[in-house]
Amino acid sequence: MLHDFLFDIGNVILKFDFSLAVRRIEYRCSKVHADEILPTISDLTDGLESGEISTDAYIAEVSERLGFSGSAEDFIRAFEDIFTPNLKMITLIHQLKQKGHRLYLLSNTNGIHVPFFTREYPVFDHFSGATYSHEIGCMKPNAGIYQSAIQQFELKAESTIYIDDLEANVVAGSDLGLLGVYYDPEQHQRLINDLRQHGIAVSD
User: Given phi > 0 = left and psi -120 to 50 = alpha, else beta, which region is 195?
Assistant: First the structure.
C-alpha cells in the first residue's frame, strides 16, 4: 500500500545550527555581544516564520537592533547557510520516492532559508509540494497549517505519515487524524521500525 508522507525539515531532513550565523556576523554587531544576538532577535525570527513581517523588514529591524554594519546581502549569506544534511534521512527519502510514495513538506521556515536549501540540497527535488509557515501565515503546532497541507495536497489523513522532531507538533498532527511519528535524528532506526509497523517496507 502506498502512503503519502508529510516531512518536517529542521532536525529531520536537515540539521540546523543558528550559532553558525552568529559567528559570521558577531564582529559586525556593535550593539550586542555574541551571546545576546539570538535572544535579541528571537521575536523577529518568529514573526518572519509566521509571515507577520517580510524578509526586508526583518533584515532592517535585525540590523537596527544588533547594530549590524553589513548589507542585506551580507546578512542573508550569513543567515541562510546553517544546515547540515541528515544523510540517513535523505537515503530513506530516496527509498520512499523510488517505491512510489508521494512526499510533501510541512515546515516552520522563512523566505531566506527556503531558496537556499531548495537550491543547495537535491533531496528536495523528490517532494511534490510544500506548505511553509511564512507563506500561509500559520505555524505548527497551530491546526491551521496541517489543515492547509491536507487540503492543498488532497491528503487522506488516515493514510498520511507525518514525521516531525517536536512532540507537540506530532500530537497536533495526530489530533487531525495524521499518522504522526516522532523523529529523533540520534535514533533513526526507531523511525525505520515505526514505518515497518505501518506496513512500509524500507531497508536499514
Answer: alpha
